[in-house]
Design a protein that fits this description.
single chain, 364 residues, mainly alpha, 15 helices, globular
Length: 364
């Protein structure tokens, strides 16, 4: 992943460091478009297409087969549990679905606040509308197997508003790291359910002590500095502030509370409401998001997230109902991702049309 990121960053460095070369090469093309000097450099040469290695082909096909296997398994589970699933879907009232959907949107729109907070602390503040467009549109890249695409999209979108790729990549990395730590903190609420259910998922909490340690400003600054050094970018203008870390972690916890309320509303419509279920849903949704991030080789963590949700919910409801709620939640998140990204992009476009164009600052 760093190799692909570093390639884009190094290209940016070359453009910034040698603008005259870029102008000169551009100027060579000015003139009579029908006249081409017959030099050796302009002779037609056969284009070579990069050959994919056997390893890359095997990995790509392994991912595709794994996704197909997960989809087939999910389809089989829906088929065998369809009687219970269909009853559950029909039992969900529209007002509850609307309220649950609203909670999904609230959680999604809190995500850009975390990204904006970390980017501002890195010395490249942006307006919240631009942060929302960059973060939410970039998040659509998670539907492509691998987390690289989401980061790359955010880097390019941030570049359009004057933020260099290294800063935006670092902010995305920090936001993802804080989200994982916050999800594990909130996920403690679901521990009793996992002790009674599948113990295999408890390994996720192995990351919690490491994540808590790196919430310290000195350790986190050291880690970010190492990343920037790998990318051959200037060091941080100052150590990462504890206030930014605290705000980012706090808002990330708010994201998971919103997602937990989203699931609790669905569970309550089936007669499984209450404070205990709310706490369980917050913990389950938090761990489900962490499982989705860890399973980055799957499109948006498909299968991994549903496994965590179903495992937790089966402690308070039948398996068929838990499976139905996991499916409904997945559909809501897909629609929410598309709608929030489109809405944020449209809002930023309309607002930016009323303001003077921003001149990109290479130092940011």
């Amino acid at each position: 992943m760093l190799r692909r990121i570093e390639t884009g960053v190094n290209n940016e460095d070359a453009a910034e460091a040698h603008p005259a070369d870029a102008d000169a090469s551009a100027g060579e093309t000015v003139g009579d478009p029908m006249t081409v000097p017959a030099t050796q450099d302009t002779q037609a040469t056969p284009e070579t297409t990069p050959q994919r290695t056997t390893k890359a082909i095997v990995v790509a096909w392994t991912r595709r087969l794994l996704v197909l296997a997960l989809v087939a398994y999910a389809g089989y589970q829906l088929y065998t549990q369809w009687h219970e699933v269909s009853k559950t879907l029909l039992a969900l009232p529209w007002p509850t679905l609307a309220a649950s959907f609203l909670c999904v949107f609230i959680g999604m729109f809190l995500g850009p606040v975390v990204w904006q907070t970390m980017l501002s602390d890195l010395g490249a503040p942006v307006k919240i509308r631009d942060a929302a467009k960059i973060y939410l549109v970039g998040q659509l890249g998670k539907y492509v197997p691998g987390s690289v695409v989401a980061f790359l999209m955010q880097m390019e979108l941030a570049k359009a508003v004057g933020v260099n790729r290294a800063r935006s990549f670092t902010a995305s990395l920090l936001a993802a790291g804080l989200a994982v730590v916050a999800s594990l903190i909130a996920g403690i609420a679901a521990l009793p359910a996992f002790f009674r259910g599948n113990h295999e998922l408890l390994w996720l909490f192995v990351m919690l002590p490491i994540g808590l340690a790196f919430l310290h400003p000195k350790l986190l600054t050291w880690l970010v500095s190492r990343v920037l050094r790998l990318l051959r970018r200037p060091s941080l203008p100052h150590p990462i502030r504890g206030t930014a870390i605290a705000k980012g972690t706090g808002v990330s916890l708010g994201v998971y509370v919103a997602f937990g309320v989203h699931m609790n509303l669905l569970a309550g419509a089936l007669g499984h409401g209450g404070f205990a279920t709310l706490v369980l849903c917050i913990g389950a949704m938090s761990l489900a998001m962490t499982a989705s991030i860890v399973s980055c080789f799957l499109p948006s963590g498909i299968g991994a997230r549903e496994l965590v949700i179903v495992t937790a919910l089966t402690t308070v409801m039948p398996y068929g109902q838990a499976l139905a709620l996991a499916v409904v939640s997945r559909l809501m998140f897909v629609i929410g991702d598309l709608a929030s990204a489109g809405g944020a992009a449209l809002f930023a476009y309309l607002r930016n049309r009323r303001e003077p164009a921003m001149v990109p600052d290479p130092a940011r």
